[in-house]
C-alpha cells in the first residue's frame, strides 16, 4: 500500500469523523433541548474571521477568545475551552482534508504524532473537569500569553527557513521527542492553547522545513478537536448558542483562505493576533484574579 492510498484513507477517516461529530452534537443538543443556531449571524462572522486566520497558520483560539469577550458572545467562561474545541472542530477537519495531500510528509511521522496528540486531547478534559471559573480564566490567559510569545519569536526569527526541503519527517530520537511534545500539546489544546505556532517552531528547531508542519498540525488539530470536542459535548461543557454559526462561518473562512488570500503577507496579521491575544489575556487575568466567592465555587 503506497503513501497516496494511505493519505486517501486518512481523508476518508476525516469525513467519517466529521459525520460522527455532527451526529453527536445533534443527539446531545436534542437531549439538552439546546439551540446551536441561536446567535447564528454573529457566530458566522466570528467563525469566518477566526478560521480564515487559522487556515493561514496563525491559529483560531486567541482570536475566538478575544471576539467572544469583545462581543460578549459567551456568558460562561468555564465553557470557553469546550466551545473553542467543539465549534472549530468541523472547519479544521475541512482544513485537514484540503491540506493533507499538498505537502509531502512521511507517514511514520504524521500518523504517530497525530495519535499522540489525540491521546493528550482525550486526557485533557478529564484533568480540567473540576476546575473553577477563576482557574479556567488564569489558565486561558496564560495560554494566550504563551501563544503571543511564540508568535513574536516566530515573526522575528523565522526559524527553520533555511532547513533543507528534502527532510520530510522525524527520525531517531527526534520521533519520540515529537510524540511527547504532541501529547502535551494535545492536552494543552483542551484549555485553549492553539497548536499551530508551537508545532511550526518545534519542526523548525529540530531541523525540518516548517512547511512539513502544515499537514501535521492541521491533522493534529482536526483529530484533537474531534476527540476533545466530543468529550466536552458529552460532558455538556459547551456553549450551544452560536455553535452552528461558528462552524458554518468557519468552513466558509477556510475555503476563502485557500482560494483567495493564501498568498497574502502574514506579518501584519501575526502582530494583530499578538495584540489581540495579549489584550484578551489581560482581561482574563483581571477577571480571574479578582476576589470573588462566586468564582471560587463555580465548578464545571
TrEMBL record:
Domain of life the protein comes from: Bacteria
Its membrane topology: Multi-pass membrane protein
Transmembrane helix is among the record's keywords: yes
Localisation: Cell membrane; Membrane
Family annotation (InterPro entries): TM_pro_TauE-like (IPR002781)
Entry's transmembrane regions: 6-28, 40-62, 107-123, 135-153, 173-194, 200-219, 240-261, 267-285
Pfam families the UniProt entry points to: TauE (PF01925)
Keywords: Cell membrane, Membrane, Transmembrane, Transmembrane helix
GO cellular component, as recorded: plasma membrane
Stated family: Belongs to the 4-toluene sulfonate uptake permease (TSUP) (TC 2.A.102) family.
Protein's name in the database: Probable membrane transporter protein
Organism for this UniProt entry: Periweissella cryptocerci
Amino acid at each position: 500500500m503506497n503513501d497516496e492510498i494511505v493519505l486517501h484513507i486518512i481523508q476518508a477517516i476525516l469525513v467519517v469523523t466529521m459525520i460522527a461529530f455532527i451526529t453527536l452534537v445533534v443527539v446531545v443538543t436534542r437531549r439538552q433541548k439546546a439551540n446551536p443556531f441561536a446567535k447564528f449571524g454573529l457566530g458566522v462572522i466570528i467563525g469566518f474571521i477566526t478560521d480564515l486566520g487559522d487556515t493561514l497558520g496563525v491559529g483560531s483560539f486567541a482570536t475566538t477568545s478575544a471576539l467572544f469577550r469583545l462581543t460578549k458572545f459567551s456568558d460562561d467562561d468555564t465553557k470557553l475551552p469546550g466551545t473553542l474545541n467543539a465549534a472549530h472542530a468541523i472547519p479544521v477537519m475541512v482544513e485537514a482534508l484540503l491540506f493533507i495531500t499538498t505537502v509531502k510528509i512521511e507517514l511514520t511521522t504524521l500518523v504517530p504524532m497525530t495519535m499522540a496528540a489525540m491521546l493528550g486531547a482525550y486526557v485533557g478534559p478529564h484533568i480540567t473537569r473540576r476546575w473553577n471559573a477563576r482557574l479556567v480564566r488564569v489558565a486561558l490567559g496564560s495560554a494566550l500569553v504563551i501563544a503571543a510569545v511564540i508568535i513574536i519569536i516566530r515573526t522575528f526569527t523565522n526559524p527553520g527557513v533555511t532547513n533543507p526541503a528534502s527532510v520530510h519527517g522525524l527520525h531517531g530520537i527526534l520521533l519520540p521527542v515529537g510524540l511527547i511534545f504532541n501529547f502535551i500539546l494535545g492536552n494543552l489544546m483542551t484549555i485553549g492553547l492553539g497548536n499551530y505556532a508551537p508545532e511550526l517552531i518545534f519542526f523548525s528547531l529540530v531541523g525540518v522545513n516548517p512547511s512539513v508542519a502544515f499537514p501535521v498540525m492541521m491533522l493534529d488539530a482536526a483529530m484533537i478537536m474531534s476527540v476533545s470536542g466530543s468529550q466536552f459535548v458529552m460532558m455538556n461543557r459547551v456553549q450551544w448558542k452560536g455553535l452552528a454559526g461558528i462552524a458554518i462561518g468557519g468552513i466558509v473562512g477556510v475555503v476563502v483562505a485557500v482560494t483567495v488570500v493564501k498568498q497574502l503577507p502574514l506579518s501584519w496579521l501575526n502582530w494583530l493576533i499578538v495584540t489581540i491575544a495579549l489584550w484578551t489575556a489581560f482581561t482574563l487575568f483581571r477577571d480571574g484574579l479578582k476576589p470573588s466567592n462566586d468564582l471560587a465555587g463555580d465548578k464545571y
